Structure formats: structure tokens, C-alpha cells
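input
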Amino acid sequence: MRSYLICDNRELLIGMRLAGIEGVIVNTREKVLEEMKKVLSNEEIGIVIITEKVLSLAEEEIMKLKLERKYPLITAIPDKDNEKREDYIAKYIRESIGIKI
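output
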């Protein structure tokens, strides 16, 4: 099972490639949806990592995929431009599994 990154940041893509995770840079809604279609057709990919900015480009479609499909796991990570909020971990858990801590 492989992981795959869909982001809009070259530095993040380079860092993930150093960790062995392939990916692509996208900047438009159409490109996001095109890459998601490719990823969903590749059975070797088990985890799709998407930055929050990319998620916002096609949020409705991606959230629908997260709810309807068990595989691959689709997860969003913060962008480098986002400020770290103290409640980020709690918010992430709440949105991911529905538990308020």
C-alpha cells in the first residue's frame, strides 16, 4: 500500500518525496478532480494526503468521497501558510471521528 500527496506547494512535495511519498502539485479545481480520479483508479494507493488549500478547491466532491469510500483513506493536512492554532488537534479529531475532547 502506498501513500500519495496532492498539494499546491513545491517544498512540501519535495519533502514528501524524500520520505518516499510520491505526489503532484495542482492549482485548479479541475486538476484536483482529475488527480483524484487517477488516484481512485490505482489500487496500490491506500492513503491520499491532501493539503487544506487543495481540499478547499473541491471540498464538496472530496468530502463526498471520504464518506462514501472506505479505500483509499483521504486525509487533509495543514498548509505551511496556516497558523498553528492551539485547538488544531482537537478540531481535527472532532472532524475526523466525531469525538469532542
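quick obs: The longest strand covers residues 45-51.
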